[in-house]
Amino acid sequence: MCLPGVKYILGTQWVVESGEAGRWISEEEHMLNDPEVERKFNFNLAKTLARANRDKLFMGKIFYLTPSVQPSMQVLTNIITYSGGRVENRRRKTTDQMKEINSGGNVNYIIITCEEDIHLVTDVLR
After folding, report:
1. Residue 33's Cα: distance from chain center in Å?
2. Which portions of the chain are predicted below pLDDT 50?
3. Which of 8, 83, 105, 114 has the most neighbouring CB atoms within 10 Å?
């Protein structure tokens, strides 16, 4: 949830070493480093954290979340809104409305669902 605002994502060793030192030690030397995950998902955590506009990642994007998504709807809503997006769950847009919103090569209306809720979005998958 706080990815748009955090400066560091730290490994557990930072907590251990801080405890041993009796104070919070420098975060910079304990940045989380997982090259395998970065390769798998094609990103660089250090570069991502260095970006100044992370709170605008989802600016202009509208999300519809189905009820059984994981993490929970509340957690995803927080992530989306903290990153500049909007969640509209009262009523899902029609497929025609989605096409209009997503026209021009931009994806601005995004549905996040899961296997348990797939029946709620079958019309979109056709």
Report:
1. 19
2. 1
3. 83
118 Cβ partners below 8 Å, 6+ apart? 125
Per-residue 3-state assignment (H helix, E strand, C coil) for 71-121: CCHHHHHHHHHHCCCEECCCCCCCHHHHHHHCCCCCCCEEEECCHHHHHHC
Q: SS3 of 5, please?
A: coil
Residue 45, CA distances (Å) to 28, 31, 36, 42, 70 in order: 13, 9, 12, 10, 22
* Angle of CA points 25, 30, 31, to nearest 5°: 130
Q: Which of 69, 123, 72, 70 is nearest to 98 (CA)?
A: 123
- The DSSP 8-state label assigned to residue 42 in this structure reads T
Query: What is the pLDDT at residue 2?
Result: 57
Burial 95-108 (b: 16+ CB within 10 A, else e): eeebeebeeeeeeb
The pTM score is: 0.67
- Token output for 14: 């930072």
* Total count of residues recorded for the chain: 126
